[in-house]
Recover the amino acids of this structure.
Protein backbone atom coordinates (compact mmCIF):
# COMPACT_ATOMS: atom_id res chain seq x y z
CA UNK A 1 0.00 0.00 0.00
CA UNK A 2 1.48 3.33 -0.98
CA UNK A 3 0.54 6.61 0.62
CA UNK A 4 -0.41 9.35 -1.82
CA UNK A 5 0.45 13.02 -1.25
CA UNK A 6 -2.65 13.59 0.84
CA UNK A 7 -1.78 10.63 3.03
CA UNK A 8 -4.69 8.61 1.67
CA UNK A 9 -3.66 5.12 0.54
CA UNK A 10 -3.99 4.43 -3.17
CA UNK A 11 -3.80 0.91 -4.48
CA UNK A 12 -2.76 -0.07 -7.97
CA UNK A 13 -4.80 -2.66 -9.85
CA UNK A 14 -2.43 -5.60 -9.34
CA UNK A 15 -1.85 -4.67 -5.72
CA UNK A 16 -5.61 -4.49 -5.21
CA UNK A 17 -6.24 -7.90 -6.78
CA UNK A 18 -3.64 -9.49 -4.49
CA UNK A 19 -5.40 -8.33 -1.32
CA UNK A 20 -6.42 -10.97 1.20
CA UNK A 21 -10.10 -11.13 2.24
CA UNK A 22 -9.25 -9.45 5.55
CA UNK A 23 -7.58 -6.58 3.70
CA UNK A 24 -10.55 -6.38 1.30
CA UNK A 25 -13.09 -6.02 4.09
CA UNK A 26 -11.22 -2.87 5.15
CA UNK A 27 -12.79 -1.16 2.08
CA UNK A 28 -16.36 -2.25 2.86
CA UNK A 29 -18.72 0.61 3.88
CA UNK A 30 -16.13 3.23 2.89
CA UNK A 31 -16.38 5.87 0.17
CA UNK A 32 -13.91 5.04 -2.58
CA UNK A 33 -12.81 6.27 -5.98
CA UNK A 34 -12.12 3.48 -8.45
CA UNK A 35 -10.39 4.27 -11.72
CA UNK A 36 -11.10 1.70 -14.42
CA UNK A 37 -8.81 0.86 -17.34
CA UNK A 38 -10.85 3.12 -19.66
CA UNK A 39 -9.88 6.10 -17.46
CA UNK A 40 -13.35 6.51 -15.96
CA UNK A 41 -13.61 7.31 -12.25
CA UNK A 42 -16.34 5.47 -10.36
CA UNK A 43 -17.19 6.88 -6.95
CA UNK A 44 -19.39 5.19 -4.40
CA UNK A 45 -19.76 3.42 -1.09
CA UNK A 46 -18.34 -0.11 -1.16
CA UNK A 47 -20.97 -2.78 -0.57
CA UNK A 48 -18.62 -5.67 -1.13
CA UNK A 49 -15.62 -6.91 -3.11
CA UNK A 50 -16.02 -10.33 -4.69
CA UNK A 51 -13.09 -12.46 -3.48
CA UNK A 52 -13.28 -14.59 -6.66
CA UNK A 53 -13.42 -12.01 -9.45
CA UNK A 54 -12.23 -9.06 -7.28
CA UNK A 55 -15.16 -7.03 -8.63
CA UNK A 56 -16.10 -4.01 -6.52
CA UNK A 57 -19.77 -3.25 -5.84
CA UNK A 58 -20.23 0.50 -5.36
CA UNK A 59 -23.46 2.22 -4.34
CA UNK A 60 -24.27 5.88 -4.84
CA UNK A 61 -27.03 7.08 -2.55
CA UNK A 62 -29.35 9.84 -3.68
CA UNK A 63 -31.81 12.06 -1.80
CA UNK A 64 -34.83 9.92 -2.73
CA UNK A 65 -34.92 6.14 -2.32
CA UNK A 66 -33.43 5.33 -5.72
CA UNK A 67 -29.73 4.51 -5.69
CA UNK A 68 -27.26 3.72 -8.39
CA UNK A 69 -25.22 0.57 -8.08
CA UNK A 70 -22.05 0.05 -10.11
CA UNK A 71 -20.08 -3.18 -10.36
CA UNK A 72 -16.53 -2.53 -11.53
CA UNK A 73 -15.07 -5.80 -12.80
CA UNK A 74 -11.89 -6.88 -11.00
CA UNK A 75 -9.77 -7.15 -14.15
CA UNK A 76 -10.70 -3.59 -15.14
CA UNK A 77 -9.58 -1.93 -11.89
CA UNK A 78 -6.66 0.45 -12.42
CA UNK A 79 -6.48 2.22 -9.07
CA UNK A 80 -8.52 2.26 -5.86
CA UNK A 81 -8.43 5.18 -3.42
CA UNK A 82 -10.38 5.61 -0.21
CA UNK A 83 -12.02 9.07 -0.27
CA UNK A 84 -13.52 8.94 3.17
CA UNK A 85 -13.12 6.69 6.18
CA UNK A 86 -16.63 7.63 7.33
CA UNK A 87 -19.09 4.75 7.34
CA UNK A 88 -22.28 6.85 7.47
CA UNK A 89 -24.24 4.62 5.06
CA UNK A 90 -23.35 1.37 6.83
CA UNK A 91 -26.94 0.53 7.87
CA UNK A 92 -28.33 1.26 4.40
CA UNK A 93 -25.60 -0.83 2.76
CA UNK A 94 -26.33 -3.73 5.12
CA UNK A 95 -30.06 -3.56 4.31
CA UNK A 96 -29.70 -2.94 0.59
CA UNK A 97 -29.51 -6.46 -0.84
CA UNK A 98 -29.76 -8.62 2.27
CA UNK A 99 -32.34 -11.35 2.04
CA UNK A 100 -34.41 -12.67 4.87
CA UNK A 101 -35.70 -15.63 2.91
CA UNK A 102 -33.61 -18.77 2.82
CA UNK A 103 -32.47 -19.86 -0.60
CA UNK A 104 -31.71 -23.51 -1.20
CA UNK A 105 -28.88 -24.19 -3.61
CA UNK A 106 -28.62 -27.57 -5.28
CA UNK A 107 -25.29 -29.36 -5.60
CA UNK B 1 5.17 -26.47 22.19
CA UNK B 2 5.96 -23.20 20.43
CA UNK B 3 5.37 -24.91 17.12
CA UNK B 4 1.95 -26.06 18.32
CA UNK B 5 0.99 -22.53 19.35
CA UNK B 6 2.12 -21.22 15.97
CA UNK B 7 0.11 -23.87 14.14
CA UNK B 8 -2.97 -23.02 16.20
CA UNK B 9 -2.49 -19.33 15.37
CA UNK B 10 -2.19 -20.13 11.68
CA UNK B 11 -5.34 -22.26 11.77
CA UNK B 12 -7.24 -19.43 13.44
CA UNK B 13 -5.96 -17.06 10.81
CA UNK B 14 -7.06 -19.39 8.00
CA UNK B 15 -10.50 -19.77 9.61
CA UNK B 16 -10.83 -15.99 9.94
CA UNK B 17 -9.75 -15.43 6.35
CA UNK B 18 -12.28 -18.02 5.17
CA UNK B 19 -15.09 -16.48 7.22
CA UNK B 20 -14.31 -13.02 5.81
CA UNK B 21 -14.09 -14.44 2.29
CA UNK B 22 -17.47 -16.14 2.75
CA UNK B 23 -19.06 -12.90 3.97
CA UNK B 24 -17.71 -10.89 1.03
CA UNK B 25 -18.81 -13.59 -1.45
CA UNK B 26 -22.28 -13.85 0.10
CA UNK B 27 -22.79 -10.11 -0.25
CA UNK B 28 -21.65 -10.28 -3.88
CA UNK B 29 -24.04 -13.16 -4.64
CA UNK B 30 -26.86 -11.13 -3.05
CA UNK B 31 -25.96 -8.28 -5.40
CA UNK B 32 -26.17 -10.66 -8.38
CA UNK B 33 -29.61 -11.79 -7.15
CA UNK B 34 -30.67 -8.15 -6.92
CA UNK B 35 -29.44 -7.62 -10.51
CA UNK B 36 -31.64 -10.46 -11.79
CA UNK B 37 -34.27 -9.19 -14.27
CA UNK B 38 -32.99 -5.63 -13.91
CA UNK B 39 -32.06 -3.39 -16.79
CA UNK B 40 -28.28 -3.08 -16.65
CA UNK B 41 -25.98 -0.76 -18.56
CA UNK B 42 -22.69 -2.43 -19.43
CA UNK B 43 -19.62 -0.30 -20.12
CA UNK B 44 -17.41 -2.14 -22.59
CA UNK B 45 -14.09 -1.36 -24.22
CA UNK B 46 -13.86 1.52 -26.75
CA UNK B 47 -16.47 3.50 -24.79
CA UNK B 48 -19.31 1.26 -25.96
CA UNK B 49 -22.32 1.17 -23.66
CA UNK B 50 -24.99 -1.48 -24.12
CA UNK B 51 -28.11 -2.16 -22.09
CA UNK B 52 -29.64 -5.54 -21.37
CA UNK B 53 -31.77 -7.41 -18.88
CA UNK B 54 -29.54 -9.38 -16.53
CA UNK B 55 -30.28 -13.08 -16.18
CA UNK B 56 -27.43 -15.00 -14.54
CA UNK B 57 -23.66 -15.12 -14.09
CA UNK B 58 -21.52 -18.22 -13.88
CA UNK B 59 -19.75 -19.25 -10.68
CA UNK B 60 -16.35 -17.79 -11.63
CA UNK B 61 -17.90 -14.58 -13.00
CA UNK B 62 -16.52 -15.27 -16.47
CA UNK B 63 -19.81 -14.88 -18.37
CA UNK B 64 -23.08 -13.00 -17.92
CA UNK B 65 -26.22 -14.30 -19.55
CA UNK B 66 -28.46 -11.43 -20.61
CA UNK B 67 -31.64 -10.93 -22.61
CA UNK B 68 -32.83 -8.08 -24.86
CA UNK B 69 -29.27 -6.90 -25.44
CA UNK B 70 -29.52 -3.53 -27.16
CA UNK B 71 -26.41 -3.16 -29.32
CA UNK B 72 -25.57 -0.58 -32.01
CA UNK B 73 -26.43 -3.22 -34.65
CA UNK B 74 -29.76 -4.30 -33.20
CA UNK B 75 -31.43 -6.09 -30.34
CA UNK B 76 -30.35 -9.62 -29.44
CA UNK B 77 -33.06 -11.58 -27.59
CA UNK B 78 -30.49 -13.67 -25.70
CA UNK B 79 -26.75 -13.23 -25.38
CA UNK B 80 -23.75 -14.35 -23.39
CA UNK B 81 -21.32 -11.57 -22.47
CA UNK B 82 -17.70 -12.35 -21.71
CA UNK B 83 -16.87 -10.64 -18.43
CA UNK B 84 -13.37 -9.89 -19.70
CA UNK B 85 -15.00 -7.56 -22.26
CA UNK B 86 -17.03 -5.74 -19.60
CA UNK B 87 -15.42 -2.91 -17.64
CA UNK B 88 -18.33 -1.99 -15.40
CA UNK B 89 -22.05 -2.51 -15.12
CA UNK B 90 -24.53 -0.13 -13.62
CA UNK B 91 -28.14 -0.44 -12.43
CA UNK B 92 -30.70 1.39 -10.31
CA UNK B 93 -31.83 0.04 -7.00
CA UNK B 94 -34.27 1.11 -4.31
CA UNK B 95 -33.48 1.56 -0.64
CA UNK B 96 -35.85 -0.47 1.47
CA UNK B 97 -37.39 1.93 3.96
CA UNK B 98 -38.11 0.31 7.30
Amino acid sequence: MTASESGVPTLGGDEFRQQTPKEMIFFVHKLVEVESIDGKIHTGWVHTIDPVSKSIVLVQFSEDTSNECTVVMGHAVKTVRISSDATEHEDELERLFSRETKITFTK
Amino acid sequence: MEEEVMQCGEENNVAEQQATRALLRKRFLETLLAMNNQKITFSMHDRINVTATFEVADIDILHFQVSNLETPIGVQPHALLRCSDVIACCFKTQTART
